[in-house]
């Protein structure tokens, strides 16, 4: 995985909390302490020096930047979109106008293969045989980018692609090119300009808006008794009213214009239950609730994992309670205790929410990453174990 992409991603998604993920590792400090007890000051000094050297080497760029001039920020990049995801044609975006990323030529013309700096390959089509991989041998220096926004559970035949790709583009924070379904930006850092179309300041509800007309909603399109989330729902509705919408429930009411966010604005709580539980797999189900000002009740990866994306009080995790009954009780209690409810909403004033539009921001972000990785060789050797980890 490209260390550069990882570093910048970590900075971005942990921006709202002091994560302490950088600097000298605690392991080194701990070793120093252990050594002090067992050997002379000279030995300790030598050890500290060697560790320091080690740490420096660790943080060196993977490859020294040959003649040290900055890569031209706007140097042209041609990015070939190998298939439109799920076979649905979308007009390709103008990266400069939409995302302030200049110098990108996006094309879906397969004839541009030989001259493309990189090819974005969406997993589904090449995994199901709807499309073939591009022909080998590939042009030297060309990057193949693996793009996937499904969880591992819904990512078939992954093992076929070991050592095939050069970069990963997924919702995972440790992807080479990381772009989650949504993320928070501390207020004040919000990028000015048209980018704001996809960035929404969040608001603390006024006293009169705190209590909402309806209690708890769930919009679900893929209902499967094998999903853990359906088991949770079956239990939950024994204790509390849940309004179920979507293909598996009532149709969305007329006034919503098919917009889930508009529906959720009438609700105090929203069930943001992912179809499967995997690292960083946190989808629009969470972010739609946040945007609508409802308190999300989440089921997905661990609470710790959610806390990489949101303040701890911003959501209620199904695992916070030993039983679903306990969860139901807590929601009912909040409903009648505005001061407690407010604790789950007051964080909002400090953030804006950014939801990258599919797939324009993904393409444009990839284009920028390709420019930054120019001249490097990257191979994604262990795609399956990484993606399942
Ligand atoms: C719906 O869930 C089933 C069971 O997990 C899964 O096999 C199927 O791929 C899912 N469909 C979609 C559209 O996600
Ligand atoms: C891309 O990956 C292929 C297959 O592993 C590898 O042979 C090639 O050197 C890589 N190219 C770049 C530019 O990283």
From TrEMBL:
Keywords: Endoplasmic reticulum, Glycoprotein, Glycosyltransferase, Golgi apparatus, Inflammatory response, Membrane, Signal-anchor, Transferase, Transmembrane, Transmembrane helix. It is a single-pass type II membrane protein. It is an enzyme of class 2 (transferase). Signal peptide: none annotated. The chain crosses the membrane at residues 42-60. Gene3D superfamilies: Glycosyl transferase family 10, C-terminal domain. Its main location: endoplasmic reticulum. It is found in: Endoplasmic reticulum membrane; Golgi apparatus membrane; Golgi apparatus, Golgi stack membrane. One of its GO terms (molecular function) is 4-galactosyl-N-acetylglucosaminide 3-alpha-L-fucosyltransferase activity. Residues 212-386 form the Fucosyltransferase C-terminal domain. Its EC number is 2.4.1.-. It holds the Pfam family Glyco_tran_10_N. GO terms for biological process: inflammatory response. Residues 76-182 form the Fucosyltransferase N-terminal domain. Pathway: Protein modification; protein glycosylation. GO terms for cellular component: endoplasmic reticulum membrane; Golgi cisterna membrane; Golgi membrane. It catalyses: L-seryl-[protein] + GDP-beta-L-fucose = 3-O-(alpha-L-fucosyl)-L-seryl-[protein] + GDP + H(+); an alpha-Neu5Ac-(2->3)-beta-D-Gal-(1->4)-beta-D-GlcNAc6S derivative + GDP-beta-L-fucose = an alpha-Neu5Ac-(2->3)-beta-D-Gal-(1->4)-[alpha-L-Fuc-(1->3)]-beta-D-GlcNAc6S derivative + GDP + H(+); an N-acetyl-alpha-neuraminyl-(2->3)-beta-D-galactosyl-(1->4)-N-acetyl-beta-D-glucosaminyl derivative + GDP-beta-L-fucose = an alpha-Neu5Ac-(2->3)-beta-D-Gal-(1->4)-[alpha-L-Fuc-(1->3)]-beta-D-GlcNAc derivative + GDP + H(+); a beta-D-galactosyl-(1->4)-N-acetyl-beta-D-glucosaminyl derivative + GDP-beta-L-fucose = a beta-D-galactosyl-(1->4)-[alpha-L-fucosyl-(1->3)]-N-acetyl-beta-D-glucosaminyl derivative + GDP + H(+). Catalyzes alpha(1->3) linkage of fucosyl moiety transferred from GDP-beta-L-fucose to N-acetyl glucosamine (GlcNAc) within type 2 lactosamine (LacNAc, Gal-beta(1->4)GlcNAc) glycan attached to N- or O-linked glycoproteins. Robustly fucosylates nonsialylated distal LacNAc unit of the polylactosamine chain to form Lewis X antigen (CD15), a glycan determinant known to mediate important cellular functions in development and immunity. Belongs to the glycosyltransferase 10 family. This is Fucosyltransferase. It comes from Sparus aurata (Gilthead sea bream). The lineage of its organism: Eukaryota, Metazoa, Chordata, Craniata, Vertebrata. The gene is FUT4.
């Amino acid at each position: 995985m490209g260390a550069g992409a990882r570093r910048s991603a970590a900075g971005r998604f942990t921006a709202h909390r002091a994560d302490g993920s950088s600097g000298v590792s605690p392991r080194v400090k701990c070793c120093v302490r252990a050594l002090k007890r067992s050997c002379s000051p000279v030995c300790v000094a030598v050890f500290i020096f060697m560790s320091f050297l080690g740490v420096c080497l660790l943080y060196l760029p993977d490859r020294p930047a040959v003649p040290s001039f900055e890569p031209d920020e706007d140097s042209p990049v041609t990015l070939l979109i190998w298939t439109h995801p799920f076979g649905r044609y979308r007009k390709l975006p103008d990266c400069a106008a939409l995302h302030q990323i200049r110098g990108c030529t996006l094309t879906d013309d397969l004839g541009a293969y030989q001259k493309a700096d990189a090819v974005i390959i969406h997993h589904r089509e090449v995994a199901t045989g709807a499309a073939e991989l591009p022909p080998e041998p590939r042009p030297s220096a060309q990057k193949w980018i693996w793009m996937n926004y499904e969880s591992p559970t819904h990512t078939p035949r992954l093992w076929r692609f070991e050592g095939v790709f050069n970069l990963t583009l997924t919702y995972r924070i440790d992807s080479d090119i990381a772009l989650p379904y949504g993320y928070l930006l501390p207020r004040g850092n919000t990028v000015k300009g048209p980018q704001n179309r996809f960035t929404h300041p969040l608001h603390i509800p006024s006293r009169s808006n705190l209590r909402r007309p309806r209690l708890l909603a769930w919009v679900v399109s893929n209902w499967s008794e094998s999903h853990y989330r359906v088991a949770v729902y079956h239990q939950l509705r024994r204790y509390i009213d849940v309004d179920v919408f979507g293909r598996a429930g009532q149709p969305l009411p007329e006034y919503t214009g098919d917009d889930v966010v508009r529906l959720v604005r009438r609700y105090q709580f929203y069930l943001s239950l992912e179809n499967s539980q995997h690292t960083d797999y946190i989808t629009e189900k969470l972010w739609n609730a946040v945007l609508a000002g409802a308190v999300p009740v989440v089921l997905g990866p661990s609470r710790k994992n959610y806390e990489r994306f949101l303040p701890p009080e911003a959501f209620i995790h199904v695992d916070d309670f030993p039983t679903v009954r306990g969860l139901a009780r807590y929601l009912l209690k909040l409903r009648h205790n505005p001061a407690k409810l407010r604790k789950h909403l007051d964080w909002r004033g400090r953030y804006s929410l950014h939801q990258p539009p599919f797939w324009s921001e993904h393409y444009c972000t990839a284009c920028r990453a390709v420019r930054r990785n120019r001249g490097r060789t990257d191979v994604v050797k262990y795609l399956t174990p990484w993606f399942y980890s």
